[in-house]
Design goal:
mainly alpha; Rossmann fold; Arc Repressor Mutant, subunit A; 5-stranded parallel beta sheet; two-stranded antiparallel ribbon; 7 strands; 65% helix; elongated; ATP binding; adenylate cyclase activity; ATP-binding; TPR_rpt; AAA family ATPase
Length: 900
Amino acid sequence: MPGGPVGTGGPDRPALREREPEIASAAEAVRAVCRRVEERGDIALGELLLYVGPAGLGKTSLLTEARRLAKHAGCTVLFARGGEQRRNEPFHVVRQLLQPALAELSASERDEVFGSWFDIVGPAAGLLPPAGRLDPQGVRDGLDFVLIQLLRRRAPLAVMVDDLHWADPESLGWLAGFTVRSRELPVLLVFACRDEFPDGVAEFRQTIVGRADRLHELRPLQPASVADLVRAALGDAAEDAFCRHVWAVTGGNPYETAELLREVRNQRLDPVETNAGQLRELAADAMGMTLGHWVEKLGPGTLRFAWAASLLGTGIRQDLAGAICAQGPDAAADSVRELRRHRVLTSTADGRLEFVHPLIASSIYQSMPPATRTGMHGMAATEVENAGLGLLAASRHLLETHPEGDDEIVRKLRLAAAEHLAIGAPEAAVRCLRRAMSEPPDDEDRAAVLYELGCSALLTDPAATVNQLRLALDEKYGLTPELRVDATFRLAQALAHSNRLGEAAAVCADEAARTAAGPGRRRLEVAQFMFETFQAEEPDGPDRSRRLAEYSRHLPGDDGLTAAVSVLRCWDLVLRGADVTGAMALAESVTDDGRLPASLGWTDTTWGFELPGILGISYLYADRVDRAEALFGEAVLAYQVAGWSGAHLGFALFLMGLLRFRSGALDEAETFLRRALLTAERIAPGIPLQWFAVGVLADTLLARGRPDEAWELARTYDFGPPYPTVMVLPDAPTLYGRLLLAGGDLAGAAEALTAAGAALDARGWRNPVWAPWIGHLALAVAPKDPDRARELAAEAVRRAREFGPGTAVGSTLRLCAAVHDGPSALAMLEEAVHRLADAPNRYEHALALADLGSAVAAAGRPAEARRHLDQALGLAVRCGAHGLADRARAELAGLPAGRL
């Protein structure tokens, strides 16, 4: 293996000298994971052991020793090595880790290990051809699932990666995430890496180093150890001054020391002080960083094979390297023998070739003249593809060729980009398409490549997407009319995801004005309405509502847009708080017994997830929980099956959390919302999904009687002014005012709720469920201005009755009863209980029962109060509303004893 055989001394194995603590740490880590598995079954605390240091300090030898210790202890070991020349090959390290382990499984075991994830993980693991397009987060989640299933069958598990700094970004991103999950799994992670990571993946170093349980930063050997190595290699007669010079020249680097001593032996140099002056020159020769050195040492034919091998990096196939350097089987075999003799190449367990040390591989690669290197990368791309390894493997070589305006190169890079997207590697696709742009493509193809480049970065870099799609739309030769419409819509999506809703709507409006009448133009016009609807602020919301209603009357009804417009109109009516009957008629016209049409599917890219999402929320606010639950459950399933574990699944989890909250299942709501929030954090701070999840989670915590936690959550995520330009569910300014009210800041709450109400009324948004600002404002002003509070309460109830659903009316009556007293308050609470008894929100029903119980107790009717409070207590416990349950218990305890 590279780095020499396992050992603790000797002239050819210096790498483990002065490494006793590091070896002991590996042994203890192995013992610990094995012990925990024996004691706790398949649930054990995992660890990360990390060796860090410059090249040549023995990281590979330590990893080899750790592998030996783990195997001896009965661990299943998964091993991989990053490669300097394979960093642009997505999931290269993942495939090394998984393929040998998966090959040992029976067909039935493999089915169990993959579960429903095979179509998602298979392409990244090299088990399925690329097809379609996968979400990167979904692939990472699928890899987690597969590894966890392997753990359950092969625990304890040791996952070891050498040269982690050269791992491809896709594998490195997954490994960095998996280090978090490994804490509660029977797995030992052992990584070895240099101090510095290449540009583009440097952020992963801190992530991984920060999570290391056992971190060992390797140091060079001391002079005494180097002297021992010198005398072991050259004899006990080696003079102290000579040994000291060896240490000074190599800096105590074990690998460089061994190579220098080998060169000294080859030159038959006596180890005496008078020869010490030649050591520096011999060290330069030993490290072989020049073309002249390698030509002299290997000869031109063998060197050319070595160059081809250096292009391939790791897992080198002799026949493929021979084809790249135009050597037949016999000549290639001769080259390999010579490279073995000079300790340049060695064999791996699977019969392939590998460089004895990464420093040699780098030296060989860097010794190629630039023109030769470029030409050989071109030959490598061709031979890799001819060998049946596909464009995924060939594309990294195409990236290294010089642009020459070759249409065939552009074609291959575009195909490679599509395959990268199909395995969940959008960054690799972007690299290919950027290289295609520099070729450059023909004028007729330039806009299409820019369009593909923009779409490739849509999930990972909205800012880059905006720039590329604008360029594509500005091209002289331009896109086909169909692509132009799609490019505009994708551009608007990217702007919307960047919190630029106004620009998104304007882009669609401008392009629609330039587009010929037909389906494409209508799609852009509807998209304009959609992005305008989602803005938090709009100059004239009521006018847009009128324009939308008028627009719907002139649709032809045969191009799939009618459903989209009906959903927008439904949502518009819901936000306006209009009679819910009309909104539900529109919703039912879109669905088939609650099922979405194909044009509005959760994974359909024509519109995105926003339209089916607001359709489901419209059902929810209308108390049609059955319809909403069917839609939201379908969303979760659709995204899980498709492997879309990023923002799409996060939004679906948020919707399920909102559904559970509106149903009064507060325990389940909190679980779903925290999962949605975790997903949002993995994507980027401050995205709309984070605002949504934090808002409803804060509402849930208030309902559960944990106002301090709700406030802490809001502070942690800066939930407060200034608000995003996208509308938030629930209305963010209203919820912020409610948090102030819950914290006892009546003046601050009144100010915030008044401002929220003014903005909402200006837009014509009067929905009492999404933004119940009036009732809470009534509570905030009641102590100082009870007459105004009652006026506000009357308006809140009027709006709720106008909207219609039982939850809206009942919860508003219950809230506004607090600013009345005597018979009027009792009447409001009695109606609230009656309305909520048939509504789906059990928590609101429990609140109304508790308030009614308190009111009738104050009116001197303890038996009736006990009946209401008992019912409230039972509902509160089932809802997980612990604060309300405690209140009900306390009030029950305070009631006089007596006959019911």
